[in-house]
């Protein structure tokens, strides 16, 4: 993994946005609106921010669940 020091480097909003879209980011949060201790509205928020290219690359990679299923199948063949 390459490490870069940002001491004397100007970082613009465009640089940050480019890095976020290149790798992707997931934001998750909860909002509860209540009055007198009674919850009136509960929002479960999940946001995925990524470029289409990054999502397509991630789609091509096998998921953890898929890898576990493949390992289970190979173990059954051995037995």
From TrEMBL:
Its main location: other. Transmembrane segments: none annotated. It is found in: Gas vesicle. GO terms for molecular function: structural molecule activity. The keyword Nucleotide-binding does not apply. Keywords: Gas vesicle. GO terms for cellular component: gas vesicle; vesicle membrane. Belongs to the gas vesicle GvpA family. This is Gas vesicle protein. It comes from Salipaludibacillus aurantiacus. The lineage of its organism: Bacteria, Bacillati, Bacillota, Bacilli, Bacillales.
